[in-house]
Amino acid sequence: MQCLICHSMIRLSWTLSYLMMPQRSKTETICMACQKTFHEIDEASACPKCGRQQESQNVCKDCQKWQANGSYYYINHALYQYDEAMKAYMHAYKFQGDYQLRHVFDTKFSQFIKKFAVFDLIVALPIDKTTWTTRGFNQVLGLMGDLSNNEVLYMKRDRDEKRQSQKKRNERLQTGNHFYVDVECRQQIENKKILLIDDVYTTGRTLRHAAETLYRQGSDRVESVTLCR
Amino acid sequence: MDKSEFFGRLVLMPRDWTNLETSFKKLPTMQIAETRVRCLRCHTWHDKQVVALPRNEFYCSACIQLGRVSTLENFVTLEEPNQFEILDTYLTWQGELTPSQKRCSEEVLRAFNLSQDHLLWAVTGAGKTEMLFPGINDALQTGKRVCLASPRVDVCLELFPRLQAAFQDVDIALLHGHQTDPYHYAQLTIATTHQLLRFYHAFDVLIIDEVDAFPYAQNAQLLYATKQAKKQTGMCLYLTATPGDILLKKVRQKQLGVSYLPQRFHGFPLPEIKTKLVFNWWKKVKNKRLPKALKTFLTNCQQAKRQFLVFVPHINQLAVVLKAINKEFPDLKLTTVFSADEHRLEKVQLMRDGRIAGLITTTILERGVTFPKIDVCVLGADDGTFSSSALVQIAGRVGRNPKRPTGTVLFICNGISRSIKQAQRQIKFVNHKAKEDAYAVSNLS
Ligand SMILES: [Zn+2]
Ligand SMILES: [Zn+2]
Ligand SMILES: [Zn+2]
């Protein structure tokens, strides 16, 4: 088996741990050296609102700002730190479009998502039509491995942007929010606890737009899980 | 996008892209077979499962650094029109060639003219680039599109200013992976061989430098890239100091013309390789004992105050060999270096300044890095990491200075490998050629 990142051969050593957990060793997709470049977030010293790695468990500055203007409940959980190694990975996976690289994290990430079993629905953030014809895949769905997604959120096409001006005022206040819930899916999300899934939490803006959209359509509670923060 | 950017190029465009002009040719990006797909840019086969995208699309992961090829796109190309401005002067270089350089240079020019594939086999330090100038000049004057390609970025970077100085008025495009400048259409292009994959029937004259810098497997891909990049009526000139099996076979079968420049500019022969069989040399060194042959080699260097290079096959052997030598020769100042070494440049400089006696290394260092009067020892020369061309290059480090045109090249090995035999044979052959009438072009059999 070749490491998906550095292409060196992954040596399956016949150590005790291999003999005890052969399945686990078989699913390694990257070598030890590459694994070490990524850093998991330690919940004990992460922001409880956005999952950012920091020194303490206090709410971080960014989240304090969000709290000041926001009126609804929303928190994010993240698995890895969004550091140099992770940025390089995202570049190769998402922007160069090397879809195989989803396997670097899909097992771990889907296991992480499964921890949030109290939620009724798992909803991956969608991508727009243009991305489908250029990138050809939704990077979030790729990372979710064998977990199934509930397709209730959609992305408005860029062209619709112009028509914004013709919309009602309260809709216009939502500028920049490109998400909508398909009419037929409304029942599915009403009074439900929804877990949004995304690849990266950067400013939190996109995820909050998605959460708002779901709340407006009657969801009971929305949280999110991202691969990195 | 300017139309000229499509001339002789494979440009990736969305599948639904259309242009009213009919001269634009759309080509498929991938060949779809039962269980596999093949990238039509780099020619790599992939398992469908591995490179599948959702919705029954596929992509190529092998050449993704050049921008992803997938079934979501088509290649779009325009036939190479040779639409170049006619200049008053092309070659502005005014240097002189030695008689044997001149002979090779004329043979190269003739191969360009006849559009026949050709091999220029010149020993390291023979002044290859200058020999190309008259031929390139002639090709440019007759409106041909010319490319000079090398597998190595550093070689391209070194060639660019030299060619620009020799052809001052000519627009030269430099293409490599670490670059941010956008591509532009030019009559003369310098590119890494990897970049050739983006061309399609573009060049009348394609010159490949250091063809054998890569092992055999990658060579097949390189030959494919070459075939794609040159026009069907075009030709290819291979430059090398150490031709590999593929090229030599073609020469023997008379599919490839050949020019030899067996002489170094100082006229002395290449030092021949001495081998010493030492069974289990690595075990000895690990136990901090040096093989007798290495001890003698180092003693000789030390007494004559000559600098030396000791090559080892693997990076993790460097420190072990250093320890063993330090124990046996505590007064000898030396250090280790490898290609990704953070302090590589500083260490090479120490060596150049004569502040250390020697380097233990895994790499032949940069081209152009020469130490005037050194001896060389290769530990484990039979290791698979040393190709025959690498071994010839290593031997070629010795005897470059006219003040000391000879030197010791010692291979310490468990056995005589095929690569060692080939390297010895090539050096003997070249030296024999040099002694012979240098003007005769003979076959290799
Ligand atoms: Zn790796
Ligand atoms: Zn926070
Ligand atoms: Zn390819």
UniProtKB/TrEMBL annotation, chain A:
Cross-referenced CDD domains: PRTases_typeI
Ranges where the Phosphoribosyltransferase domain occurs: 175-228
InterPro entries: ComF/GntX_DNA_util-trans, PRTase-like, PRTase_dom
PANTHER family: DNA UTILIZATION PROTEIN YHGH (PTHR47505:SF1)
Family recorded in the similarity comment: Belongs to the ComF/GntX family.
Protein name: Competence protein F like protein
Automatic annotation (TrEMBL), chain B:
Domain of life: Bacteria
Gene Ontology MF terms: 3'-5' DNA helicase activity; ATP binding; DNA binding; hydrolase activity
Domain Helicase ATP-binding positions: 109-261
Any one of the GO BP annotations: double-strand break repair
Domain Helicase C-terminal span(s) in chain numbering: 293-445
Keywords: ATP-binding, DNA-binding, Nucleotide-binding
Protein name per its UniProtKB record: ComF operon protein A, DNA transporter ATPase
Natural source organism: Pediococcus damnosus
